[in-house]
Amino acid sequence: MKLPSFCNEMGSFTVGSLFVVLVILSSSSSSFHGNAYYQNYTEFLLANGLARTPPMGWNSWNHYQCNIDEKVVKATADALVSTGLAALGYKYLNIDDCWAERERDWKGNLRAKSATFPSGIKALADYVHAKGLRLGIYSDAGYRTCSKTMPGSLGHEEQDARTFAQWGVDYLKYDNCYHDGSKPQERYAKMSYALLKAGRPILYSICEWGEENPAKWASRYGNAWRTTGDIKDTWESITSIADQNNIWGRYAGPGRWNDPDMLEVGNGGMSLEEYRSHFSIWALMKAPLLIGCDIRSASRESLKILRNKEVIDVNQDPLGVQGRKLRSKAGLEIWAGPMTKRRVVVVLWNRSDSRALISVGWREIGLPSSTPVIVRDLWMHSFVSMNKRYGLTANVAPHACKMYILTPI
User: Fold this and answer.
1) What percent of the residues of the chain are helix, what percent strand, and what percent coil, each to the nearest 5?
2) Would you say which domain of life the source belongs to (predicted)?
3) Which of 142, 281, 357, 388 has its CA 20 to 30 Å from the CA of residue 350?
4) How many helical (H) and strand (E) elements, i.e. helices and strands, does the chain have?
5) Catalytic residue among 69, 96, 97, 175
């Protein structure tokens, strides 16, 4: 079954529909997980039962690209624990491209690159698991991976899936380079079935770059799918990608997530305000939260963004409805989405180059206009009002945002 549509495919809400969704999903039942709607809602979940909330963790590509080795992975595992990020839910430690030897062994098996992963992937998985974390790996639905430095898995799906399971891998990012021209639906399905037969639950992340609208078909095979091309550490990139990902909101839900690519927070190409906006919108869109910087050397300010538990809780809310853009005029935007317990998350986002007032009325987000609401500011960690009615206005700096949870009284 599909998610109840509280907005059309291009991103605009129908009048009052958000309130309808809130009423349906937040009935008088004392437990959201116990109601019949939730049981029906989760029937579609991929048989691996993973990613009931968006996956969280770290990926090597944005910062290291091909310059990755087992020492960096182990040190990053240590840093995830020591910084408190692991305790907040950042569990997956994902090795991206360039980890394997250029050719398979004589039996056709993938091999860890001896120069950079001399202990092998199994030993690395054991180290990561001992830290209470999970290990992710990378392959490709083609003959070579995107770096051209290692084999892809096309034609070796079952063999590679068994190898990953034997090594103790928990997550597979599966790219789309150098293939045979066949439909991605066919190639990604083969790996999906292979993973399900491999004997170990492995979260399956489809990286098809949104070229054939994977939101419409990928939930049959994977837990997440890229909706866009690769992210860059620039303001122009994150705003463009947010808009592209916004279109597909109604296809996401527990076990199946739109993926606008990994986080750039901490890589140095944007201001702290821009990084807060990036993190806020990714959290609201229920995107996988995969850190892409060097955690070991990340600044205190960057770690403060990544460790904002109130924003993380929005991303991990079990209702699992992707927040959407409601309005945009002259770079001043309203994004919002429903949460459990009748709450609504709202982001007032200033994409212009000048400070500006941004206002939102309760009716615009589906609440009756005179509803008394408790307003919580998730970046200031304070209550704006305990009994606010009608709407909300904030003075927002350029490229910054304000993020709130509204709780009707």
Assistant:
1) 30, 20, 45
2) Eukaryota
3) 388
4) 11, 16
5) 175
User: With b meaning 16 or more CB within 10 Å and e meaning fewer, what string describes 126-151?
Assistant: ebbeeeebbbbbbbbbbbbbbbeebb
Cβ-based neighbours of 216, under 8 Å, separated by 6 or more: 251
Per DSSP bridges, beta strands 324-329 and 332-338 are antiparallel
pLDDT digits (tens, 9 = 90+) for 200-217: 999 999 999 999 999 999
Q: In this structure, are residues 207 and 226 in contact, taking their beta carbons and an 8 Å threshold?
A: yes
Count the neighbouring beta carbons within 10 Å of the beta carbon of residue 318: 12
Q: 322, 337 in Cβ contact below 8 A? A: yes
Q: Cα torsion for 22, 25, 29, 34, to the nearest 10°?
A: -160
- Asked whether 343 and 407 are in contact (CB, 8 A), the reply is yes
Out of 126, 230, 313, 377, pick the active-site residue: 230
For 329, the token pair is 């005029």
Comparing C-alpha atoms, which of 228, 239, 237, 259 is closest to residue 400?
239
> Residue 249: pLDDT above 70?
yes
